[in-house]
Amino acid sequence: MAMVCLSDFEAYAKKYLPKIAWDYFAAGADDCTTRDENILAYKRIRFRPRMLRDVSVMDIRTKILGSEISFPVGIAPTGFHQLAWPDGEKSTARAARAMNTCYIASTYSTCTLEEMAAAAPGGLRWFQLYIHRNRAASRRLVCRAEASGFQGLVLTADLPYTGKRRDDVRNGFRLPPHMKVKNLEGAFEVCKMSPLDPSVTWNDIYWLRSLTRLPIIIKGILTREDAELAVKHGVQGIIVSNHGGRQLDEGPATIDALVEVVEAVRGRVEVYVDGGIRKGSDVLKALALGAKCVFIGRPALWGLAYKGEEGLQDVLRILQDEFRLSMALAGCASVSEIGQHLVQSSKL
Amino acid sequence: MAMVCLSDFEAYAKKYLPKIAWDYFAAGADDCTTRDENILAYKRIRFRPRMLRDVSVMDIRTKILGSEISFPVGIAPTGFHQLAWPDGEKSTARAARAMNTCYIASTYSTCTLEEMAAAAPGGLRWFQLYIHRNRAASRRLVCRAEASGFQGLVLTADLPYTGKRRDDVRNGFRLPPHMKVKNLEGAFEVCKMSPLDPSVTWNDIYWLRSLTRLPIIIKGILTREDAELAVKHGVQGIIVSNHGGRQLDEGPATIDALVEVVEAVRGRVEVYVDGGIRKGSDVLKALALGAKCVFIGRPALWGLAYKGEEGLQDVLRILQDEFRLSMALAGCASVSEIGQHLVQSSKL
Amino acid sequence: MAMVCLSDFEAYAKKYLPKIAWDYFAAGADDCTTRDENILAYKRIRFRPRMLRDVSVMDIRTKILGSEISFPVGIAPTGFHQLAWPDGEKSTARAARAMNTCYIASTYSTCTLEEMAAAAPGGLRWFQLYIHRNRAASRRLVCRAEASGFQGLVLTADLPYTGKRRDDVRNGFRLPPHMKVKNLEGAFEVCKMSPLDPSVTWNDIYWLRSLTRLPIIIKGILTREDAELAVKHGVQGIIVSNHGGRQLDEGPATIDALVEVVEAVRGRVEVYVDGGIRKGSDVLKALALGAKCVFIGRPALWGLAYKGEEGLQDVLRILQDEFRLSMALAGCASVSEIGQHLVQSSKL
Amino acid sequence: MAMVCLSDFEAYAKKYLPKIAWDYFAAGADDCTTRDENILAYKRIRFRPRMLRDVSVMDIRTKILGSEISFPVGIAPTGFHQLAWPDGEKSTARAARAMNTCYIASTYSTCTLEEMAAAAPGGLRWFQLYIHRNRAASRRLVCRAEASGFQGLVLTADLPYTGKRRDDVRNGFRLPPHMKVKNLEGAFEVCKMSPLDPSVTWNDIYWLRSLTRLPIIIKGILTREDAELAVKHGVQGIIVSNHGGRQLDEGPATIDALVEVVEAVRGRVEVYVDGGIRKGSDVLKALALGAKCVFIGRPALWGLAYKGEEGLQDVLRILQDEFRLSMALAGCASVSEIGQHLVQSSKL
Description:
4 copies of one chain form a homotetramer. The first copy, chain A, is α/β, with parallel strands linked by helices. Chain A has helices spanning 6-16, 19-26, 33-43, 89-98, 113-119, 135-147, 166-171, 203-211, 224-232, 254-265, 280-288, 298-330, and strands at 46-47, 62-64, 67-69, 73-75, 103-105, 125-129, 153-156, 216-221, 237-240, 270-274, 293-296, 343-344.
């Protein structure tokens, strides 16, 4: 079977992953409306392509927080990569480095962040964290991330409690015994009461700020009000995200929320988006609407499930080729030429 | 089979209830457009969730007409509960009391209101009534309700005649011989000409007022004009309802009508809504749009059909957990923090 | 099988009519978009029902051009009733008289207009005509209609040529040899070149006016411009119609066009509508949007196909009951209380 | 099987063509959204038909760049006609001449342009070209076209690179060995690196202008900005086109883009449209929205696949009959009477 587009990897993963793992990765909250809307919302946006521009030399590189990446697609934080491929997050780290892009490693990884760093030295990586009831545990994670060369901290803001994913409840989802949430080993028992602190507020960003010199990126913002608060509390970046539709169902699609957030931020910090990216032209739409970069979640897992590091590179390469082609067909030779004029949307 | 969400109870009831009973409970008028719209209209409303608010202590209690309930979901009046479970409305009354919420008992119950009161003493109950051609019969019901400790009277306004429910006509629906509309025994023969009085007008509320000191809640209002009349005629509450889509087909979905009614009422009386509630987040949407409380109809019957009192508690507990979770994920720690800012809707 | 709603008659007719006859009656032009839109457009209109009005005495009678009918539903002109029932238009005439409503007999009937008059003396009937190349033939029809007691002339304006109905082309539709377009026998050969005159213009209404004292109703108007011209040329009534979606595909649904026409006419002549009526509540919507009366086409044929005169009466009786019930549930006790306030529509 | 409408030819071609050829002709870029939108967008436009106009004498002729054609439908440039019929573009040329309309021959023909000219001397033909890296090759094509009597040059602007058509990638599409891109034989090897020049800009139109006295028509314009540039650079005509949805997916449907382009052009040059034409009434809509003429792509190939020259004539004749009929039913006796007043559209 030829792997031509990302759906091919999805079909492969659905066929070959254990049902419980597939269901976990695919899960959305409640009716999965937001999970699916993330994708559908892209389809409602139309390009306004321009013709007869010199697109013979294409430059698709960009920078995020000062670091150059080969194209504006990074890897979003998702948990438990060993469910998809034996080497887990080590493969993910290697693929991201090979493709010269950014990998946001999840707290809920099945490798330690030191193992990822060792697997792909020199790769651009950010570390995603939650704030735990046990603040000392969170502080240790921050220190370890900084010490291991991670270059950004991504604070997830949309998970005071875990969303209700019906299939996981039905399946009684839990990690197989031979896998561990290694970053947290010793800190507390993961499978009991949630270690995450639902009392976290904006002021905790100041606390986080006091722990590290790494830039702080906040993930999970969906409204202009929160975007304004994020800027005011001094974050360096915002990831517009609804956690892949896994938390509050029937919130906005991320590409729709992006417009509102970008407008509120007015260029003061970088804005990224995840959720629903399935084609290179989706990336182009997100950038046209103001994102500096997008991050892919499930498609990265499909790539891992297909062939580990190599499969994930395949996924990224396809997105890269599609993104370059859609840019050219829309009349843009470099990322700096992408702008809102390229799209029309019922939201604009 | 795990009972994870309300649809699981629906599937159970459809499978195990006699077809004629399932059809009766499921029936909508004519093409069932409004019945289905009640549900679809919720799906068109999007949340605007807020992040990083302290949601460690959740308070989901509310008050209706001064009485505290454990969360803003009560049980709407529906008829013939013995069709779902042998103990009928006695089970319903017990489940409502166990969950500390309000049960609106229907005139068309298969237990008397005294039996319900005896089954669950101290529970918060309102009594639903129609105004009959035989006014003496209506007056007797009002007195019995007041004497039995019911704390509110719910006047149904949308049934001068019964809607055309095609399946009931095809099935020749009628109660099995061993069940009775017990509240009306002796008053008149139910199966002949409708005992309901289609000449009722707003002035009859004054007559009802003269019979009782109980608060009067009017059920079936769908327009701003009628909401204004309801307030003017001195009711204490309004239930925005289209009778579960069983009366006039192709009227508005109740969640859409709620916006108009709330706007007209301007806080002068409490406004509630029923129809289409299937998830905890639907409750959150209704409250965000101004409802003080919602009432569930068919889901309560599915719970009864599953396991009687216990099954109905399961349904309520799931709604409660989902409501609490969706509140937290939207950034609200107590019901008082819920407001219109939480939703965006094409109707707003 | 119980005949509960009009769809039951449709299903019956589809099952028992010869395919070529069913296809002919069901046919729409081209992709059948307008035929289907006629129905769908009704579903997009929502009622705003009013409560607690005295609807104990219902009066559903109305008048069209001064003649009282039992309820505002007449029978639209359709051809070849013998394809549905052996007695053809004689049965139709008898059913219309029995139900005390108006029957518009088609030029393309399989009985003569004299036979219809004889079959149901005293019934309210209008005669539908085209203007033929052979004006003498048209004049003779007008005289015969007037002489036979028909009380209105309905000029069809939307058929300069016959629409392209793909199934009729595929089936090679033509009348079986034992049926005849009896009204035209002797006038010209029907199966050759179309006898209809595509050069007809508004001025021909003056010619028609000169032939008869009967009121002239023009059928097939869909725009405000043509409505204005119709009034200006002195017609007594307008039927908003797209010929059941059988002529120009992808014109407007008739209920949508009605709004525009009613607005243009400003009460100077009566406005009727046909196309897409399938339930009593559709009639209520049409009246709320300004129609004086509606006419049914295909449903009348389904009734004939079911049981001739008796089946058509069944159809009319169901519509009558449904119309009365929907009026009551919307809070109207008589036709004069129906108004635009009863509906909300994206068109308004 | 009767060939009644264009879908019949589509069904035939899908059934009888080799899968690889069918897939190539049917292909759209990526998810095929734009390919399908081209058709769906027509269905969203509604006519406002006018009645009682004299349509006894119909004149459907029009002129494009001064040349009269029998009706406003020409043949869009598509490649590799031998995949559909052994005689390839020679048959196409003959059919176009027989129907007295315009044929735009593709650079990627499987016959030379001289062969086409010889096959149908005197026919109205335009030649479609790309600008090649090898400018001499392009210049030679221009000269040959002019010398062979082609009367217009159509510069395709939307293919700096070829769109991603998944099925072609999966099928490994390439021409069978016995077919050749004959126009380019000797110029360069087609199957290697794309010979097309992605550095082409608007200034190259001046270069093209310097090579020939033929009118230049630019194909692939979708925005008002590019329409303005086209006029400014002196083209004689614009074809609003998205390459049948085969280049950038999720750009606008052509009939939607037409409105914007026509508005920008303000009559300074002729505007045409291709993509999604499937019925005569689609032609009428395009003309009502300002197109001077439409061009059909895939339907022409289906006609060829059915019966070569004869099959294509069948397709054109059906479109012609449908167009004439829809004009008459909308109340227009000649093309000059067609205008924006005939349609209503959410875009207007």
